[in-house]
């Protein structure tokens, strides 16, 4: 017997109970019975209410334990204080899934009750959806077990939503937008069942062609990442994540008790998985609508066909914004379009049919684009003119869209008065992606390209670094024995050496003689720094001397530092004098790894040493990480051209940076005691010359958090 029920039965239940089914038509418990009855559900419906009787023609059971048939789903619609007892009854009846609609749990601080319910359910092989949700709609079972609208359009878009109200709104909105749903599931507080559980079913389900998720917070991020990576190999996944702003994140925390995490981390990690992120619900719904019934491009070449120069320029701007590449092979474009445009038009992309273009020009230009194998997608723009016949245009687009549907994406933006708007509406009704605003049309194409790139990129294996974890743990034990949660610079440098990351040569001298000897062994110029756990800010204490060129300068610096530190803090314990190789500064980068609250081990890369906090020109990735993805991460930052070499500078050793990123990520992943490693700066030299980890900060978990 499986330890947990098959998730399939949440979507295709054989029997559904409603606990808290009410005789009162205004109550949620009544509406749920009504929706299930009217949705065409073929399985058994069991309303439960202590009063018994009948609701909407269904006999009411006084207790779920009286039901004799299989109950895969029990929708729980009683106030929070009765939910635990209800769950106990469900367990006695061997219910597989409790869909807890009731609010009043972790979202209002009632964590203990939520945990108690989940623990009991798990012990009895029952799974919990919710609490604080609106229910489940599943087209596969013709089941609308929600208190949303009755009429849902069946189709191929599956929605998983953390917000109930947004989900209910989507149920209505998808009908008006002509979007069919295969399922819509509300996860609310995600006390037990979460997105990866539901994705398991939706990835494999034939009917679902695209998955949309509304997320407020991520808890088991590592599981989510691996499930999403699998999902996008089968179908597109679009995500809307709220809480981008600080205020939004706070609101999300109180809405479904989510820990929203840092938005930039979410954004980068979700894109690393190949998921497409939408900023607005409208964009997300448009993308779902058309990605589920449009072909995905087979290449990067897009042409714009327009009757207006201005709108063509706007579209070109939008293409840059949404990462859509305009085809610029002029000889091929001229060959393709010169016969279908007037002499004063343009066959440079955008292909300008000119303001006097009648609809027949569009017909010819679209046919030419369709038949050219080097063109992979088309943006068709039309501004209403006196020679433009909207009705004729509508007919041409209907005909062309039918042709394009089997070969390449065609998106449209039409701009004008009532006739044009009517056209847009009618085309949308036929599932043709027509929009009023050019940016909407191009953003859709951008989403298609995002998915195309995910599917056409080779799946790279993650790069596993062989790092001697035992040696790292030996250092961690010493730090723990010293009751510290931070490592001294010498310890952090030792860890870098174990990891194979080059640090400046460094020795700790305990007297002047040693200081001179070490300086000569390392080679001039050197740096001298005080080593004392009582002095955090060494420079402020006068505890640092740079650029020491010879023995006499070392002697002077030794004396000066001793003197300064004594004055700064007479009680300070002086543990030694660090003699370091004086690093030649070139390009300063920051690389870091940490255990993220949402996604577990993640890495960060940025440029800018001390300005990194201000610039925030950084990129994140989650582990595991391939070498190619690490390179992509480095290439993502705005200042990347600096690493490629500007104004005659040599290209920097980007490969060593990628290697260092994976090495420190591996340490955080393999050593659960370590929460943070930050190398700032990692000074990067010209290609082939490597990098130096100049300053390394390593933090350990607080003893009570240690894994
Ligand atoms: N077994 C079976 N039935 C029971 C039990 C029980 N143990 N205990 C009570 N009932 C019956 C009641 O007698 C009542 O039936 P009646 O109207 O025929 O007498 C019915 O269950 C409902 O109980 P009420 O006490 O009347 O509760 P009410 O319907 O007012 O509210 C609800 C229950 C809806 C669960 C409420 O407590 C709640 O949590 N509301 C918020 C729901 C919500 O918003 N969820 C998030 C959705 S997502 C979004 O934001 C849109």
Give an overview of the whole structure.
The chain is an alpha/beta fold. It is 39% helix and 21% strand. The chain is built from 24 helices and 29 strands. The strands form 6 sheets. The protein has a 7-stranded mixed sheet, sandwiched between helices. Strands 24, 25, 26, 27, 28 and 29 form a 6-stranded antiparallel sheet that branches. Helix 13 (359-371) runs parallel beside helix 14. The longest helix is centred in the middle third of the chain and has 19 residues, at 438-456. Bound molecules: acetyl coenzyme *A (ACO). Acetyl coenzyme *A (ACO) binds next to helix 2, helix 3 and helix 5.
Keywords for this entry:
single chain; 707 residues; alpha/beta; six-stranded antiparallel sheet; 24 helices; 21% strand; flat; binds acetyl coenzyme *A
Helix content: 25-40%
Radius of gyration: 32 Å
The description of the largest β-sheet is: 7 strands, mixed
Distance between the termini: 32 Å
Structural class: alpha/beta
Broad shape: flat
Instruction: Please give the count of helices.
Output: 24
Reading side by side through the largest sheet, how are the strands ordered? 9-8-11-10-12-13-14
Give the overall pLDDT as a whole number: 92
- For the secondary structure, the number of strands is 29
Low-pLDDT parts are 256-260
